[in-house]
Amino acid sequence: MSIEDLTNLPSELITMAHGSGGKATRKLIEDIFTSAFQPDGLEDQARLSNTALNAPGVQLALTTDSFVVDPIEFPGGDIGKISVCGTVNDLAVGGAQPLWLSAAFILEEGCEIALLRRIVASMSKEAYLAGVRIVTGDTKVVGRGYADKVFITTSGVGIIPPQRRLNSENIRPGDVVIVNGVLGNHGATILASRDNLALSTNLVSDCASLGHLMEAALNAAPDLRTARDLTRGGLASALNEITHDTAFGIEIEEELVPLHQEVSGICEILGLDPLYLANEGRLVLFVPEDQAESTLKAMRSIEVGKGSRVIGRVVANHPGVVTIKTMYGGNRIVDTHIGEQLPRIC
Amino acid sequence: MRYVDEFRNPQAAQWLLSKITKISEEIDRTGDNPISIMEICGGHTHSIFRYGLDQLMPTSVEFIHGPGCPVCILPKNRIDECIKLAEHPKVIFTTFGDVMRVPGTLKSLDQAKAEGADIRMVYSPLDALVIARSNPDKEVVFLGLGFETTTPSTALSIQIASREALGNFSVFCNHITLPSSIKALLDDPFITLDGFIGPGHVSMVIGTHPYDFIAKEYGKPIVVAGFEPLDLLQSLLMVLEQIRDRRTEVENQYTRVVPEHGNPLSLAAINEVYELRPKFQRSRPNEIEINRLSIRKNYRAYDAEEKFVINSDVDRHSVTAEPDGCACKLVIMGRAKPTECPKFGLSCTPEIPLNALMVSSEGVCAAYWKYSRMREIKVSI
Fold it and tell me: Does B114 contact chain A (CB < 8 Å)?
């Protein structure tokens, strides 16, 4: 078959029949999902065992997240990759080793099956890289206009080794604040990929799984206090979340916050603050000062941690408030964002 | 980032700051009153706070924040009209994002959108034209809002629509002229100002001569300024030098963007499409009397007020009616700081704003809330 023949084939589309529970559903599940994810059986539940669970003091971690990103495919990733990374990262920053995921798909009537295939392939690949397995799932089909092509919900289970208790209450004045690279690339990429802005950039999303990076940091910093993945609301929201219930504040320095030049440019044009831009492969973590060097070294040895650096510290002043020191030595508050900066970012 | 970082250089800022301190000491002041310099433009207010410039000033120099936020001086009943238009079943209402959360009498555009109105945020009125072209069975209305910075682009969109005979596009015109609001301030007997930092983007369109009256008739110095921190510091320095030397002139610091005579193409577009709105009623005492624009008869087919028969009989010339107990008017006029308003931070916050000043991206209360609560906070240096 020549290339022309292939492109001339009528593109296969999701129909309401794919959601009927009948033959078409079964064919879709076998063709697209189980062939890629290869679960152990086709029961409606995954039956899981892991020897680590036998150790006393081990905890299970469970998290869930939904993904509605628009556009569905963008430079550096797609909704499938994000749906794996997002849930893996939620587990990882809590100190859990991610093991198993579930994936539920809401498909819009008329969605191209080829698109679905690409999304599932990218989930498979990302799960492999992150060391997790997608062990169960579900699909539903809704009529045209009731969803936008594909929405995905993933849940994840991981295990937290004994004695590992990451918690924002652990932070202490003097602790350093570390991020693993330039901020806001995901948010800026999504913005630029939307047709209505006509911005052309070379940016790619930072979308990545952070499980291995977190393990490296935890091994290097036995007293690692807490960590957060920076998603919607960016660094500003994560830092505010962490200080919220503590008796301490956080001070970061404008000059130390790493930004890609194109991200700064987009923010200048659109009047956005990069501290609030979304990320999908970035985290912030807090370690005692004497463990900062070893943590940075361990993080930088991993691809997604190459850009790791200290951007500020925990202070005893202004409890619950995050501030940034401007280049001129002035200070301003970094508040949580109000309203929606950008809908459907993940 | 080239062409931006140069204007944020910290060493140059330190140098300018030391000059500012030195010159401010050379100025004769009456008693302990600080030298009051008003930055007219809301964009300048936000730059000042964003870079913490207010904290770096010598105690003898004070920034007074001006009325240059077009959303903040939009009468509330005009927001109500926007909502009425947006709720029309045939209308797609398009607007800059700024105005979405500004409270009308009953609700904001944001709330109307949640209730089902088709409201779309755009970055340019030309995007609204695109929406009109692809929705021929709908009426697309663009909210024309702002000073001379945005007026040319809505004029252009009307000219294009007219050329294309795009019958389903119209503009709800709420444009205002900036020099008139400065004049209103200068006529206010309660305001004591020593000089002005003039708006950059408005001046890019109108040039610097429309400010001549400030220097000649009112004897106040004004320097048209850019928006980067070094622009602002240099402009402040130029104003202070004028005060020290007892000169009153219109100077232009923002020469890389602002031509002396403005942009002739933009001015021609404004003049062709818009005219001064007739004044139906005198504004109440101590309010800013602003020149508002309306669409000329030749282009009435593109005037949403003609098309949808809007006769909110205005308030068109007065500042937005403020909720009870608020100090919005005094704050807009530079006579009070946001923190002096009894509602600030208590019953009026960005989450639950009582008025536009707290939600507009150029609103002075929003700037204070976002950046300047710092004053009460001790920072470790």
Answer: no
Cβ proximity of B109 and B79 under 8 Å: yes
- Per-residue pLDDT tens digits for B292-334: 899 999 999 999 999 997 765 444 434 445 667 788 888 888 8
- Mean pLDDT of the A108-127 span: 96
Report yes or no: B43 at the A interface, CB cutoff 8 Å: no
> Given CB atoms, is B123 within the 8 Å cutoff of chain A?
yes
Whether the Cβ atoms of residue A266 and residue A194 lie closer than 8 Å to each other: no
DSSP H or E stretch at residue A332: strand A331-333
Chain A: residue nearest B51 by CA? A326
End-to-end CA separation in angstroms for chain B: 28
Residue B284 has pLDDT above 60, yes or no: no
- Residue B318: per-residue pLDDT: 42
Q: A326, B50: Cβ pair inside 8 Å?
A: yes
Looking at the DSSP bridge assignments, the partners of residue A101 are: A134, A156
Q: How far is CA B56 from CA B24, B133, B193, in A?
A: 13, 51, 20
* H-assigned helices in A104-260: 113-130, 185-193, 211-220, 234-244
User: Distance between CA atoms of A312 and B27, rounded to whole angstroms?
Assistant: 40
B255 close to B226: Cβ distance less than 8 angstroms: no
Cβ pair B123:A270 closer than 8 A: yes
Which residues in chain A have their CB less than 8 angstroms from residue B131's CB? Answer: none
ipTM at complex level: 0.76
Check CB contact under 8 Å for B10 and A321.
no
Dihedral sign, CA of B108, B114, B117, B122? positive
Query: Judging by DSSP bridges, how do beta strands B139-146 and B91-95 pair with one another?
Result: parallel
d(CA B32, CA A108): 70
DSSP string, B231-247: HHHHHHHHHHHHHHTT-
3-state secondary structure of A289: helix
**B376, B369 contact by CB (below 8 A):** no
pLDDT digits (tens, 9 = 90+) for B206-256: 999 999 999 999 999 999 999 999 999 999 999 999 999 999 999 999 999
User: Residue B281: is its pLDDT beyond 70?
Assistant: no
Q: pTM value?
A: 0.84
Work out the average pLDDT over B48-66. 89
In chain B, residues with a C-beta closer than 8 Å to the C-beta of A335 are: 369-370
Residues 208-247 of B with CB under 8 A from A: 229
With an 8 Å Cβ cutoff, the interface of chain A facing chain B consists of 196-197, 251, 261, 264-265, 268, 270-271, 315, 317-318, 321, 323, 325-333, 335, 338-339
Output A278 or B5, whichever has higher pLDDT.
A278
For residue B166, the SS3 value is coil
Distance (Å, whole) CA B216 – CA B222: 11
